[in-house]
TrEMBL record:
It comes from Artemia franciscana. Residues 439-466 are annotated as: Disordered. This is DnaJ homolog subfamily C member 1. Residues 275-316, 385-432 form the Myb-like domain. It is found in: Endomembrane system; Nucleus.
Length: 466
């Protein structure tokens, strides 16, 4: 029996095999990467499933690959060495205790959160209150000390500053329990309930206010339309009266025989007699200039524009519009006449030029006095005695020597043959004046065209309305 037990005990003993012992001696702890790689190749040939017939060969090979992946990386190898020395980390972390903590429902968790939030809020509120009190005492106290040193009435100032500090502190609101989160939530719920209940009333009030605004806007629009209609009726009535009104000139033979003016009677009362309207008379340059001024005074869009101009000039509306349209077409022809006259003047002999210049000096009055007269005569002379070659040379020199160049006009005069510096400057001034006049005439022509077009549009609109 004893031998049997001994045999059984020997059969239960397990021993390490030689290939298993070789695994532990493959590499040392301080082995290099090359040694680890060499050992991995050696063991992979032994433990590969294709060359190992054991049932757990595949699992052993996967473990070998995982070990090699850890050991070939320096960071993972250092952590592995640390685990070998210190052991595995303690698994009893805070998550372990949280998992074993008593489970709470949503209501209980909310209550705990509200309580904690209220405590924190109350503490923060009192901290802010004390901080404000401290700031007020520090600021006002420092001011009081400065004023106490500067003033002679020390006791009075000190009392006033103390009272001021106390008043400022009293104005700081103290933290209240009613301002904590639970009471705020309750007040929010009450306000929401009241708002929901009063929503129909608010909507009804909004609709009433909207209806009132619409009615008010409608009344204002009707009043505006009525006012416009009334203005149109008044304008139409005025035009109708103007058509029916005739101006008479009362004559009194006794008054004329007595030598009194025709506008004064024997009783001394004044009778205003309008002057007779001129129709088909001769138009002078002064009349045309006055027409242009009146067209600028009464621009397009003025009611009864041409009637007002005709009344001022004591002429008919048809004649006024006819002359305005004719002058618009004659602007270009007047420019041509002006240029031809200037050329004829340049072609006259020098003696006639001197006579005309003297005549102009005697008759023309300028704002600048003698200097302006000399400038006028010099500008007239600048238009003459300039050939096409000289003009071209002047333009080329002005392009070569722009504004800001040193001794510009001296260089320009040298570039123009037969002309001095003063003559070149007078020529430029004369050309600039011609350009300015041309622009003014073009602007005037544009305004006349716009006014005529506006009048035509107004007549068309009036004819459409009638």
């Amino acid at each position: 029996m004893r031998n049997l037990l001994l045999f059984i005990s020997f059969g239960l003993c397990v021993a390490w095999e030689s290939f298993e012992l070789e695994i532990f001696d493959v590499v040392e702890e301080d082995a290099s990467s090359a040694d680890i790689k060499k050992a991995y190749r050696k063991l992979s040939l032994q433990l590969h499933p294709d060359k190992n017939d054991k049932p757990d060969a595949e699992a052993q090979f996967r473990n070998l690959v995982a070990i090699y992946e850890i050991l070939k990386d320096e960071k993972k190898r250092l952590r592995y060495d640390r685990v070998l020395v210190e052991g595995l980390p303690n698994w009893r972390n805070p998550l372990y205790y949280y998992r074993r903590y008593r489970k709470m429902g949503g209501i209980e968790t909310s209550i705990w959160l509200i309580v904690l939030t209220s405590i924190i809020q109350f503490a923060v509120s009192w901290t802010a209150y004390w901080e404000k009190k401290f700031e007020i005492r520090e600021v006002l106290g420092s001011k009081a000390k400065k004023q106490k040193k500067q003033s002679k009435k020390k006791g009075t100032i000190q009392d006033e500053e103390i009272d001021l500090v106390e008043e400022e502190i009293k104005q700081i609101p103290k933290p209240r329990v009613w301002d904590l989160v639970p009471f705020l939530c309750i007040r929010l719920c009450i306000w929401t309930a009241k708002f929901i209940v009063s929503t129909p009333q608010l909507y009804k009030a909004y609709q009433e206010e909207k209806q009132k605004k619409e009615e008010k806007a409608k009344i204002e629009e009707e009043e505006r339309l009525e006012e416009e209609r009334r203005v149109k009726e008044i304008d139409a009535e005025r035009k109708h009266r103007k058509k029916k009104t005739h101006k008479f000139e009362e004559r009194n033979g006794d008054i004329y025989s007595a030598g009194l003016p025709p506008s004064v009677e024997e009783s001394g009362s004044v009778i205003v007699r309008p002057e007779p309207v001129i129709s088909g008379g001769f138009w002078t340059d002064e009349d045309i200039a006055e027409l242009v001024k009146l067209m600028k005074k009464y621009p397009p869009g003025v009611p009864a524009r041409w009637e007002k101009i005709a009344e001022v000039m004591n002429r008919t509306v048809a004649e006024i519009t006819k002359i305005a349209y004719r002058e618009k077409n004659n602007i270009h022809r007047s420019e041509a006449r002006f240029e031809n006259a200037a050329e004829d003047k340049c072609n006259q002999p020098n003696e006639e030029k001197e006579d005309e210049t003297a005549l102009v000096k005697k008759k023309v009055k300028t704002k600048g006095g003698k200097f302006a007269q000399e400038a006028l005569s010099s500008d007239a002379a600048a238009d003459c005695n300039w050939s096409q070659k000289q003009q071209k040379a002047l333009e080329t020199a002005l392009g070569q020597y722009p504004k800001g160049s040193l001794e510009r006009w001296d260089k320009v005069a040298k570039a123009v043959p037969g002309k001095t510096k003063e003559e070149c400057m007078l020529r430029i001034r004369y050309l600039a004046e011609l350009i300015r006049k041309k622009k003014e005439e073009e602007e005037e022509e544009r305004k006349v065209n716009e006014s005529l077009q506006e009048d035509e549009n107004m007549k068309e609109s009036q004819s459409d309305e009638s």
